Amino acid sequence: MMKDACYLGSIATARSGDKGNHANVAVVARCQASYRYLEQVLTAERVATFFESLDISSVERFELPKIGSLNFLLLDALAGGASRSLRIDTQGKLLGTAILELKLPTPNNLGEMRAIDY
Hints:
alpha+beta; two-stranded antiparallel ribbon
């Protein structure tokens, strides 16, 4: 547990969805400063650890700097997908909401990162 932490949702928004057994989570920074920060701290490993209860086989990260977004592909995250899984969220729609609760080290310029400039 981090002593000095902020929630991802305080500096970004997120959307998610599915393709078969895999989930996609896009994290969109509120501003350029928060995107630069997220590039450094929001790693595929951190996302994999956050979602470890889903038994994901791996996480891939894709950077989209022109739109201030990081996209994460969560492989084997949906227990077989919508037609096979017994989970409540078989399509990964709530993963975007869930990731906003991920705790990150608090940046020095947190106030600046809450502004929307995209």
